[in-house]
Amino acid sequence: MSKLSNLLMMVELLNSGRKYSIQELSKYLEVSERMIREYKIFLEEAGIYIDTIRGPYGGYILRKDINIPTLNLNDIDITTIKKSIQNIEDIELKENLKNLENKINSNLLHIENKNKKIINENQELKVYNALSKAIKYNFKVKIKYHNLKHGESIRIIYPLGMYLFQNEWWCSSYWEEKDDMRQFHIKRILEYEIMDSTFDPKKINIKF
After folding, report:
1. Which residues pair with 159 in a beta bridge?
2. Angle at 108 (CA atoms; ends 103, 112), nearest 5 degrees
3. Fewer C-beta neighbours within 10 Å, C or N terminus of the chain?
4. pTM (2 decimals)?
5. Handedness of CA 72, 78, 83, 89 (dihedral sign)
6. CATH code of residue 34
7. Which domain holds residue 22?
8. Do 98 and 172 belong together in one domain?
9. Which residues are within 8 A (CB) of 13 and not within 5 positions of it... i.e. 6 or more apart?
10. pLDDT digits over 80-129, tens only?
């Protein structure tokens, strides 16, 4: 694929709200991880800003939706390519068409997943909306969180971004008590309180 096609595909993937690791993007676009980092720089120079989530489950994510041109691929394209593959004897050209077919299938699957309702539980939706508000206005949030190892505890966090991991929502936040970045599973936030105090995300980004 051309550089422009790769850039459009990268933005299309990230625009779903899901977090993608550099390795995942490299695999999808069939380019090196170094090239993915260069694409990020190029997109940000064009005004499309990509957040970097740090930590073991880190990656890239778009915080806000943006309007981008779609590839407008459909089942007719798949059928056309399949028929073409059957009638072509050139092995290299046939292999390239098969790769193109796989990319179209991947794009269609992405569009299908994008249209699915991710949040089904009312409590989870309330937590999601509260954290989204906190991210927008840089509010600190007090939460009661259930840790799988240590049980329930009260924590004060500075929410910085939301992302999808394995089809579930997580919040990347600075944890005040531990002075560290942590990833909080939305489903395990039992209670929440948006506090009156705010924080400066730039200071946190510089720190980490």
Report:
1. 173
2. 145
3. C
4. 0.47
5. positive
6. 1.10.10.10
7. 3-114
8. no
9. 20, 25, 28, 110
10. 777 777 777 778 777 777 776 766 666 665 555 554 444 556 788 889 88
